[in-house]
């Protein structure tokens, strides 16, 4: 079948909306008609070469939609089922899955390296960005990469559950393990940062400080749960300490992926504080610490992949908060666009503008 998609013809090239030939789902696969897809900073990183990406490709990994067909051997889903795409589906059999760490699954990224469709114009093989290719009206994915959407969650807004919300939720609840009354500082008020702020509020955090280079994001941050907002500056760490009794925050969560911001997040925490790095930076982003300060401050610094989440277990928990109104998905969306609006959304991310742009089909 033919469908429309935003195609990355080469790494570094602008996305172009084009017709693609999508095959019927094969054994163990399902076809999904997308309702919406979030435009994530990881898509920008794939398009510009910060993260490795085969090309030509259809990017997009934060999506939700409806199953339209299933391949042989698929017994878990049926046409008509509403699903959230999972860009890192765990195999359940590798070393890391055996350790109970499915977010580190060694085989989660395999689908991204296998062509899944063709460009209608010339028959060129197309690769699925992060295995999901959500910047298209329809996509074909492995059945275990499509998770049933819990009841009571709007299908369009549910796209955000596929990356931003699972990542922000997991950063708070699994990696940083924020406790009631603890102080939290979140660096970066984009889609993931907004989800992180909401998760910190739901966890019962006390002082919640949001930090961003754009003062225009203060209203978004406070609506998500920030009790304080700081425009990033050279003395950000000092200002965070002032807001947290002079000691520093119990927890810092970095959602930017820049060496300078990671270093500032670390310096913003108290002795014994915890810093979780969610942002994805380039190999050239080097962070330095002295041996003495590592000993003296006794802080913890940890990476966080996909929120250290098990999506199959976490989605139902998160859905409860969506249904109760505690977690506002729609409030994270600052722009609803079509496929042709993705390049402008990429530029907005480069410039640090807005929250989450959502492609609505």
Short summary of the structure?
The protein is of the alpha/beta class.
Helix percentage: 10-25%
The SS-based structural class is: alpha/beta
* Beta strand %: 25-35%
Gap between N and C termini: 17 Å
User: Sheet with the most strands?
Assistant: 7 strands, mixed
Low-pLDDT stretches are none
* Bulk shape: globular
The overall strand count is 18
**Rg value:** 20 Å
Mean pLDDT: 95
DSSP helix count?
A: 10
Order of helices and strands: EEEHEEEHEEEEHEHEHEHEHEHEHEHE
Question: What's the structural blueprint in terms of helices and strands?
Answer:
Elements (H helix, E strand, L loop, with lengths): L1 E7 L6 E7 L7 E11 L1 H8 L8 E2 L3 E9 L11 E4 L9 H4 L18 E3 L5 E4 L9 E5 L3 E3 L15 H12 L8 E4 L3 H12 L5 E5 L5 H7 L3 E4 L4 H8 L5 E6 L4 H9 L1 E9 L13 H7 L2 E4 L7 H14 L8 E5 L4 H9 L5 E5 L1
Parallel strand pairs: 4-8, 11-12, 11-14, 12-13, 14-15, 15-16, 17-18
Antiparallel strand pairs: 1-2, 1-4, 2-7, 3-5, 3-9, 3-18, 5-6, 6-10, 7-8
Helix pairs in contact: 3-4, 3-9
Walk me through this protein's architecture.
The strands form three sheets. Strands 3, 5, 6, 9, 10, 17 and 18 form a seven-stranded mixed β-sheet that branches. This protein has a six-stranded parallel β-sheet with strand order 13-12-11-14-15-16, with helices on both faces. The two termini are 17 Å apart. Helix 3 packs across helix 4 and helix 3 packs across helix 9. Helices cover 25% and strands 27% of the residues. By secondary structure, it is an alpha/beta fold. The protein is built from ten helices and 18 strands.
């Amino acid at each position: 079948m033919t469908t429309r998609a935003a195609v990355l013809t080469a790494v570094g090239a602008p996305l172009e909306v084009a017709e693609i030939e999508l095959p019927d789902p094969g054994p163990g696969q399902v076809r999904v008609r997308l309702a919406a897809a979030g435009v994530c900073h990881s898509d920008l990183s794939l398009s510009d070469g910060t993260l490795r990406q085969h090309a030509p490709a259809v990017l997009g990994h934060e999506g939700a939609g409806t199953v339209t067909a299933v391949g042989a051997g698929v017994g878990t889903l049926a046409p008509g089922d509403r699903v959230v795409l999972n860009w890192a589906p765990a195999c359940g059999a590798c070393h890391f899955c055996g350790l109970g760490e499915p977010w580190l699954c060694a085989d989660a990224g395999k689908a991204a390296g296998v062509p899944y469709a063709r460009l209608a114009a010339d028959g060129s093989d197309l690769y699925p960005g992060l295995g999901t290719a959500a910047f298209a009206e329809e996509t074909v994915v492995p059945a275990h990469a499509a998770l049933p959407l819990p009841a009571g969650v709007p299908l369009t807004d549910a796209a955000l559950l596929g990356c931003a919300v699972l990542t922000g939720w997991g950063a708070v609840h699994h990696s940083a393990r924020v406790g009631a009354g603890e102080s939290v500082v979140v660096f970066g008020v984009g889609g993931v940062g907004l989800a992180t702020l909401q998760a910190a509020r739901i966890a019962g955090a006390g002082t919640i400080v949001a930090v961003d280079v754009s003062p225009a994001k203060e209203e978004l941050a406070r609506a998500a749960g920030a009790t304080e907002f700081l425009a990033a500056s050279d003395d950000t760490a000092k200002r965070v300490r002032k807001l947290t009794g002079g000691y520093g925050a119990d927890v810092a969560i970095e959602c930017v992926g820049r060496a300078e911001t990671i270093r500032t997040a670390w310096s913003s925490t108290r002795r014994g504080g915890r810093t979780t790095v969610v942002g994805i930076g380039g190999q050239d982003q080097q962070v330095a610490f002295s041996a003495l300060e590592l000993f003296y401050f006794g802080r913890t610094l940890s990476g966080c992949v996909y929120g250290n989440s098990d999506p199959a277990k976490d989605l139902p928990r998160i859905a409860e908060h969506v249904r109760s109104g505690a977690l506002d998905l729609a409030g994270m969306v600052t722009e609803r666009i079509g496929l042709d609006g993705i390049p402008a959304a990429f530029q907005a991310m480069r410039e640090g503008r807005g929250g989450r742009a959502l492609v609505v089909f």
